[in-house]
User: Fold this.
Amino acid sequence: MLVNRPLRPEVQERHLSVFADDRWNLTPALHDLNAKVSAVTFDKVPERFRLHIKHFAWLLINDRGPQRRAFRMSVDRPAIRTVVSIVRHVREFAIWLQVRGVERFVDVTQEDLDHYLEHVNANEEFNLDQRMDLLSGVRWYWSRRDALLAEARLPEWPPWHGEKVQDLVGRRTLHMTNRTHRISPDTMEALLLWSLRFVECFADDITRAYHEFVTLSARTPRARRARGTSPARYGSTQQQHELVKQQLEELLSQLKAKGFPLPGRRQPDGGLSVNYPHLGRLLNTAANMRYVEGYHRIIEASGLPIGEATYLYQPVTGTLQGRPWRSTLISYHEAPVLARLLSAACFVVIAYLSGMRTGEMLNLRRGCATFDASNDLWLITGHHSKGVVDQDGNTKAEGEIRPDPWTVIDPVATAIGVLEQLHDYDILFPTTLNTEGNVGETVLGQRTGLARDGAMIKMDIAQLIAWVNDYCAQYGLPEAIPADRDNRPITIGRFRRTLAWFIARKPRGLVAAAIQYGHVHVKMTLGYSGTYDSGFPDELAFEQWLHRIEQLVEADRRLQAGEHVSGPAADAYKQRVQLGATKFSGRVLRTSREARDLLGNPDIQVVQGLGMTCVPDPDKALCQMKFEEDNARFTPDLDDCRPRCGNIARTDGDIDEIKQKITELRVIVADALAPTIRHQREQHELKRLERLVIDHEQSRQRTPTE
Assistant:
């Protein structure tokens, strides 16, 4: 069924579907390593239409021949996932025809198509997008009319006279909106904080414990059966027992010397017992440690206490707030859980601090991070498929290596390094971290060793949050991760939207103090993620536009309530605030370009600084104005603000900030032990700020309308 589609290199012929099957597995043609199983099923298609719809599906998958052009199809040959969707919608059309009593496609009339349109639009179970998809399915079927058998063809004239689907369902305008909910600031900050702790504080301990777990788990009977192996045997059974006894005595001596207990496990009645199978794993023997009397006597004679759990013997060296991050060793059963949580934490760090798309992240491979010493930049090379097309404009399922690498900050590179140390897979986020010797191959033969998908990552993050909150409760830490708004789950696509929101609105928040967030902004907007192929500038433009309008509306509300404004740019401030709040508030943005253009509109350029508001005018600016290459937008350099600049305005809110600074300076100036140079500098700044407050209040008295 995949004659003319490029297949994944590891796919075996025995896993490929054939035309006669009622379920076609199309997953071998999906090259993203995080791709879920994708299949077309025909068992629910009415028997009289099944062969023709199969033929149509085969054409969608494989045919590059001519098609009907009455409709403007975006591509000649749709992507595999789109094929699955189209066939499903054509199946619904066939079921409706059967109920209506139409037995062949060739018998369908324009009147039947009009009735189907009425049926789709009248069904309240379908939302707007579903109605459009159902009608588009009929259009796709008609587009292959000339390649189908005569009895499988719809009428010669295009369905619904070739009208656009959005017009047929009453959707005349398509507004470009971002429906992705951002993660609330409290949730995101706490989640990032703990993810960084996993990567920077806990990773070494978890990785060592997990490697010990992998070694020991390969010695379980289940793993041995899967590999068809068994421990090496030497001599007779008696000789073998004597060798195991000798090894057991040596092991117990080592445990006693290091102060480690016997591996223990809790019984249903609450009591502790020795974990004999684990002793067998430690000795790499298949001998039954539980029932051989000689082993029992050696264990009892050692005098070692039984541990509360089956601990691994890797030391805990990581610290949190100056103390070890856990009070016990990591246990055998904890190790794979913590490894998966560490992987989830790495995902959060990489996803949030890079802005990569989901598929791009989950397809990252070992060795993808390189350091450009000449520019002091970390570069990430990866595979992408979004927007990658062939010479005919059709999507290339196999994608390509992106020519422009991502530019990221140190924590992202650190997280990638942690993943490369954690496991041996080529893909950074494999479906499974350890199979205890099982090959894990499904009937499709292609899940083990591939990337986790969005649903798996969502589950991983939920488990990470639950673990953190349990940990905080156990150790009395007031840093639990709060639930997101409306208890929404944390999904992959929400990280990009949230990052754009933080950059636009909280450039000096928690992340700034932790990892130089301003550096993130520079690299996100000027590095890879700043190229428009990445899509991230679109996210950022929308968030900045929303933030700008909200600021202007709030400023206008304060002006209407009588807020006073002083400074050389006071009149310009009032004009821009009133214009922005009345002209642009509530405006619908249809394209990302429109958002960027509006952000560059000089009529709404108002920038909040520390104790002042800048109303940028390049002709008056005393600082170095920053211009953006893609539009006319310009921004002031607030770090180089000059007190005599003609672009400065001061609101009552700005004056409140200045008064707070005055209070702090008075304490410093009153310190008789302060160095002379510092005392003079701060006293000069204090007088300057006090003068600003006096000028602001005097200008209020000179303004009769206020």
